[in-house]
């Protein structure tokens, strides 16, 4: 198990609600929990590193234009 935090762009200029970040990342195989901190613009992901990687999580954030 791994726990890692990622910084994301401010959502002030997007139409993406914060809970969508949780939905997007939770859909990845191996992601257990996703916690979004709007004050720090960080998302902390607890995941099984045998099923997904930090790079896959970052890629999903990039795909949704969050980083």
Automatic annotation (TrEMBL):
CDD domains: HMA. Residues 2-67 form the HMA domain. It comes from the Bacteria. Signal peptide: none annotated. This is Heavy-metal-associated domain-containing protein. GO terms for molecular function: metal ion binding. Pfam families: HMA (PF00403).
């Amino acid at each position: 198990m791994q726990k890692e935090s990622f910084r994301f762009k401010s959502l002030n200029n997007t139409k993406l609600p914060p809970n969508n970040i949780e939905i997007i990342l939770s859909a990845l195989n191996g992601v257990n929990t996703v916690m979004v901190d709007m004050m720090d613009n960080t998302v902390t992901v607890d995941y099984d590193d045998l099923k997904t990687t930090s790079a896959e999580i970052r890629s999903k954030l990039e795909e949704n234009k969050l980083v």
